[in-house]
Structures are given as structure tokens and as C-alpha cells.
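testing teh design pipeline on a random one, pls ignore if ur not involved
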């Protein structure tokens, strides 16, 4: 049985570019499709191929013609959802393969994929459940019933049993199939920072519940960690790639796990730079852990500051304070860890709000601010709260750089201020 795993091409539309000629907002980084590498690793006894359409956007038709898969699995985030549907049609018409869709959008809004060109939807982590599905299809089973897998039924609601995610869903003993993207490896380069980068996952989910975040859909709110031996194995498999992005929503969600992993990296004599996600309150409460990780090669942390006021943080259910964010910045500067700060601008920002955020970023010396527009992603609490305000339903615009609800400022002015904030924040940025 042949299985093709598909990473969709760069997708998404840009209002500021289409309407106002502002093309500086769109940012593209091609990183390896770790989710597909993980799935492929757990299908090591099948014939599996990965096609990365972000690195080779025109290659699908040829791959379908030559490989002729029996099953095609497609992943995708929200702004790629429409592209996933188009890819499914192409696959069906080309070779008639069974089409399975998973990823973050499928996990949070599975009904979107209840379409004729899709056969199954994987809800949540798929490393274990997708393998179960593949085996069932190979055996010719009918009326397949696997927790976390929904067979599509266009015209009727999806019927499935939610999966209770546990450590077994991580399949720790099976490494990602990094070798299946070797032909694309030169594309996984962050040109703006001149970095070759590989991905490793140490944990899934997040123990917090911010209203705007779609992460909880992957594990139904649970936080699961890989064992340290598995993480060390995966880091070593990346060979001489100098920078490793720990692709977790929160690498430090379990402090004891983070400490064990750091010690294991040091004991293994690994000499690489690491990028990891951490909350600011974790930095403030446990600066010793940050110092230990700095000694082990932690080069930069990604922190979701989100807002600069307590009121703004409360609206997001962030469970944090602006003063904690500021203290964390000071601690990280003292330790010598680069700060990649995530900030979210609200569509109801006025000029003073943009100016305050720009002043904060400059004054606090946030090394690389990553600034997005508040977007009510389907499946999140924020989407439920703002549903009546949404004026753009086309998911192509859900790139986190478009306002899909009305802006308080004239729209053009909003995007001009946003573009200026990005330009000033990224000038001279480096890791």
C-alpha cells in the first residue's frame, strides 16, 4: 500500500496587499513539515512519500502520476484549508486515492472537511490514529470505527468518538522520517536571519487556555511530553544542522520534564543552538531553568506577550500580567537569551494604541517582535465570542495578518500603522 503525505503550498490572501499595495506584511518561512515526518515515521513498514508543495509548489501532478498512492494524507492550518480541498479534488481525479485530512484546522473545525472529495478527517494528534486507519484500510475494513477519526458524510454531521489522548499517542519509540524530506532540506532556511533550522518536538498541547489559541484542539486540552531519550534521538538525527527549533506550544509546560531534558542535552554533549517557547511567568518564577538551558545552548525564546496592558491580557484569558512580561524581558536580557516576542494587535486599535506598542517594543528592547492581527480562528473560544462581528468568512484571509472583523481606524490607516510597526520592529533584527 502506497501512502502520499502532502504539505500544501503557501496559501492565504492579503487585504493590505490586494487593496492598498502594502506587500511588506506578508511573511513566508518554509520549515520542514514535521507533522508529516512524524506520521511517516510511524508508517515505516509501508511505502511512504512526502511531497512538500511549499518547497516545490508545482510538483504534485508529477508525483501523483509516478507514485499512484492508495492513500493521500494532507495537513493544513486554517488559511490553507481551501487549498487542502482543492488538493483533494486533484488527488481524487488523478488516482482515486483515499483522502485523509488532518492538522490544526481539521482538529478545531472538522466539519469544514465534511466534503465529497475527503474520505476521513483526523481530529487531534494523528501519529497513532492515522496508522490505525491505514491498517484498517489495508485490511479492507468497512464502517471503520477509530477514536479520533471521522468518516465523512456530506449532507450530515460528522459522527465520531473523541480520542482520549495519552502518552501512547506519541509513539515515543518511533522517530520522525526526516530522510523523506532530504530533497527539500536546502529550502528550510530562514533567510531573514540567515539560519539553517531543523524541527524537533518535545511536547504537545498546552496547560493553559487562552481564548485566541487553537492549540488545545490537538490534544483536547491535555499536555503530553516526549521522553527525553526520544528527544535526544531526534536532535541527533538532524545531523550537523546548527539550529533546532523545539516546535512545541510550550516547551516548559512541565518544569521537571524541561529540567530533565536540559540535563540530557548537556550529558549527551550536544552542541547546537535551540529556539523554544516559554511563558513569561515561567521565566520570572524559574530563572534558574532559563540559565541552565542557556548553558545547554538555548539561543532564543519565543514568548507570547500578546498585549502590553492587564486589560488586554484579561480579554484574551491570558492568565498573566503586563508587569510579569516586563520582568521576564529584564531577566532574559540579563541571562543573554534573545527574545522573540509575539504581540497581537486588535482590530479596534487606534493610532495611540499602535504608538504605545511600538514604544514598548523599542523601550524594552524586544529583539525580534512578531506582530499578528487578532483573528478569531474557528474552533476557539474567541471565535465563539466574536462570531457576530466577523465580516470575512473566506479562510484564505485567516493568515493572522488580516482583520476579519471591522477595524476602528479606517482600514487603510490600520494596515499602514501595522506595516510601520512591523518594519520598525524588524529593522536590524537578529538572533
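output:
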Amino acid at each position: 500500500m502506497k501512502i502520499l503525505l502532502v504539505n500544501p503550498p503557501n496559501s492565504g490572501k492579503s487585504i493590505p496587499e490586494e487593496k492598498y499595495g502594502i506587500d511588506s506584511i506578508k511573511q513566508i518561512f518554509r520549515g520542514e513539515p514535521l507533522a508529516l515526518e512524524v506520521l511517516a515515521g510511524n508508517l515505516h513498514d509501508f511505502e511512504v512519500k512526502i511531497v512538500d508543495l511549499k518547497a516545490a509548489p508545482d510538483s504534485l501532478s508529477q508525483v501523483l502520476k509516478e507514485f499512484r498512492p492508495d492513500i493521500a494524507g494532507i495537513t493544513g492550518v486554517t488559511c490553507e484549508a481551501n487549498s487542502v480541498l482543492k488538493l483533494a479534488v486533484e488527488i481524487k481525479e488523478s488516482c482515486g486515492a483515499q483522502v485523509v485530512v488532518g492538522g490544526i484546522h481539521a482538529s478545531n473545525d472538522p466539519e469544514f472537511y465534511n466534503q465529497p472529495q475527503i474520505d476521513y478527517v483526523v481530529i487531534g494528534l494523528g501519529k497513532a490514529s492515522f496508522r490505525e486507519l491505514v491498517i484498517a484500510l489495508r485490511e479492507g475494513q468497512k464502517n471503520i470505527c477509530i477514536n479520533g477519526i471521522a468518516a465523512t458524510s456530506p449532507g450530515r454531521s460528522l459522527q465520531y468518538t473523541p480520542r482520549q489522548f495519552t502518552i501512547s499517542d506519541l509513539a515515543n519509540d518511533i522517530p520522525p522520517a526526516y530522510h523523506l524530506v532530504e530533497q527539500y532540506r536546502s529550502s528550510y532556511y530562514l533567510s531573514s536571519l540567515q539560519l539553517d533550522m531543523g524541527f524537533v518536538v518535545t511536547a504537545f498541547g498546552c496547560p493553559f487556555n487562552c481564548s485566541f489559541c487553537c492549540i488545545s484542539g490537538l490534544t483536547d486540552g491535555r499536555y503530553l511530553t516526549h521522553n527525553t531519550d526520544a528527544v535526544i534521538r531526534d536532535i541527533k538525527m538532524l545531523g550537523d544542522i546548527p539550529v533546532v527549533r523545539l516546535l512545541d506550544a510550550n516547551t516548559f509546560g512541565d518544569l521537571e520534564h524541561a529540567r530533565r531534558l536540559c540535563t540530557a542535552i548537556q550529558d549527551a554533549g550536544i552542541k547546537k543552538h535551540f529556539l523554544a517557547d516559554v511563558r513569561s511567568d515561567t521565566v520570572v518564577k524559574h530563572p534558574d531553568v532559563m540559565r541552565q538551558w542557556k548553558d545547554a545552548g538555548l539561543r532564543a525564546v519565543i514568548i507570547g506577550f500578546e498585549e502590553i496592558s492587564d486589560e488586554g491580557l484579561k480579554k484574551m484569558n491570558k492568565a498573566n500580567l503586563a508587569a510579569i512580561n516586563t520582568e521576564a524581558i529584564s531577566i532574559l536580557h540579563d541571562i543573554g537569551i534573545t527574545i522573540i516576542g509575539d504581540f497581537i494587535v486588535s482590530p479596534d486599535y487606534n493610532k495611540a494604541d499602535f504608538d504605545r506598542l511600538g514604544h514598548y517594543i523599542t523601550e524594552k528592547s524586544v529583539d525580534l517582535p512578531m506582530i499578528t492581527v487578532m483573528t478569531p480562528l474557528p474552533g476557539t473560544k474567541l471565535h465563539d465570542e466574536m462570531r457576530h462581528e466577523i465580516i470575512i468568512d473566506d479562510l484564505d484571509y485567516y493568515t493572522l495578518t488580516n482583520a476579519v472583523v471591522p477595524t476602528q481606524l479606517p482600514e487603510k490607516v490600520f494596515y499602514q500603522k501595522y506595516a510601520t510597526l512591523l518594519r520598525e520592529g524588524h529593522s536590524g533584527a537578529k538572533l
